[in-house]
Amino acid sequence: MNKAEKILKSKGIRPTEMRLAIYKYLKRKFYAVTLKEIEMAFIKKSDDNKTADRTTIYRTLKLFQEKDVVHQIDVGTAIAKYALSDEKDLDLHLHFHCTHCGKTFCLPNKVSRDSLPDKYEVADVNLVLKGVCTKCKKRK
Predict the structure, then answer these.
(1) DSSP character for 45?
(2) Long-range contact list for 11-16, CB < 8 A, 24+ apart?
(3) pTM score of the predicted model
(4) Can you tell me the distance from the alpha carbon of 139 to that of 75, in angstroms, rounded to the nearest whole number?
(5) 33-34 and 81-84 strand pairing
(6) With left for phi above 0 and alpha for psi between -120 and 50, is residue 27 left, alpha or beta?
(7) 74, 128 in Cβ contact below 8 A?
(8) DSSP string, 80-96
């Protein structure tokens, strides 16, 4: 059993071929990806040679979200982006959205749990900084 299979099983997810492929795809990405980007990676143009369909990909992402394998990032563009999670509960890290190239990156900076309100039950966190990434800044 490989590492990806172990991770999915530890989260209570049956490691099917497509789930493993999507997990490995997300693992290779250094930035958050949209559903469309994942679809383009897995759905072939030819109907005879499809590797997956939209529904399978969408359901896999939703399952991964429910089991805290991925987190969804809302950068205010009405298009959700997905990245692998690194915590079991609330994903308390910052994201950076480049307004030039449109990529969204998970930053290593963590938000302290002490900064969360005591008397509220937090269900979701979306921390997005916007600006120009280092690659785009060098191109200017």
Answers:
(1) S
(2) 11/67, 11/68, 11/69, 12/67, 13/63, 13/64, 13/67, 13/69
(3) 0.80
(4) 23
(5) antiparallel
(6) alpha
(7) yes
(8) -EEEE--SSS---EEEE
- Find the DSSP H helices in the chain: 3-10, 17-28, 35-42, 54-66, 134-139
What mean pLDDT, rounded, does the chain reach? 86
How far apart are alpha carbons 128 and 73 in whole angstroms? 8
> How many residues are recorded in the chain?
140
Average pLDDT over residues 98-114: 86
| 126 pLDDT higher than 70 | yes
Rounded Cα–Cα distance for residues 72 and 62 (Å) = 9
